[in-house]
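Per your request, structure below.
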């Protein structure tokens, strides 16, 4: 079983879109998948058609008023999910330095039930974000294929290596990968941005590019994955390719 988090400290880079559609792509590969929404805005929860205020959420799990297994619910997309709601803001305030491993401990009872646990991390340098990072085997940093976005990638990697790995050396086994989203292949800018990034981070750059496409906003509006709209759309094919890249990690 592998825990995969999608993260970056800035928002608007397709992090939630990637979390949801990668989870569904893995499900389509016959894998047992749990999607965990850690953002108080509950974007992943809403994406899959769940009202965040009408269901048990991670808030109750963190507060020890509900077991984590009893908080899991099935989505219409078929993926199991631990949902978020606005009450996670209270958990964010309650977490203190030294609590970075709490989520990892909470997930322990579920590890034998799934092949992949996908974490949709909150934006910013939030304590819940550090919890997601500390729980991960694979950290996928989502970045728009734009020059200014590379600073966000560097900032995220620097914090992981200096602050998280510095505090918890056992996490240095983590795989760090960079996923470029909102990629416009017909421009000169996006390929140049990726080429610049490859000079710095080399093999940490994933070979998959998530295209800039209206289907992602459409899928969110319709509360379903891109695969429910079109399995042959380049966006759907890109997330299937990403899922295929993750499959070999299952047995490592």
């Amino acid at each position: 079983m592998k825990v995969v988090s999608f993260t970056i400290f800035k928002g608007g880079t397709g992090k939630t879109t990637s979390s949801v559609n990668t989870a569904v792509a893995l499900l389509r590969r016959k894998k047992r998948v749990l999607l965990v929404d850690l953002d108080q805005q509950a974007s992943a929860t809403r994406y899959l058609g769940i009202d965040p205020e009408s269901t048990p959420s991670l808030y109750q799990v963190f507060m020890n008023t509900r077991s984590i297994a009893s908080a899991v619910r099935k989505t219409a997309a078929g993926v199991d999910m631990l949902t978020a709601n606005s009450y996670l803001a209270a958990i964010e305030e309650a977490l203190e330095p030294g609590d970075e491993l709490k989520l990892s401990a909470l997930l322990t009872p579920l590890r034998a039930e799934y092949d992949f646990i996908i974490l949709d991390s909150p934006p910013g340098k939030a304590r819940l974000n550090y919890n997601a990072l500390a729980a991960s085997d694979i950290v996928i940093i989502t970045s728009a294929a734009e020059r200014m976005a590379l600073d966000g990638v560097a900032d995220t990697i620097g914090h992981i290596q200096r602050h998280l790995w510095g505090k918890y050396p056992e996490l240095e086994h983590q795989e760090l990968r960079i996923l470029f989203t909102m990629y416009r292949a017909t421009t000169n800018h996006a390929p140049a941005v990726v080429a610049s990034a490859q000079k710095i981070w080399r093999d940490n750059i994933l070979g998959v590019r998530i295209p800039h496409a209206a289907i992602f906003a459409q899928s969110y509006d319709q509360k379903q994955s891109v695969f429910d709209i079109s399995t042959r759309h380049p966006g759907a094919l890109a997330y299937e390719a990403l899922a295929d890249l993750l499959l070999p990690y299952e047995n490592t």
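The CA atoms of residues 29 and 231 lie 13 Å apart.

Regards,
D.
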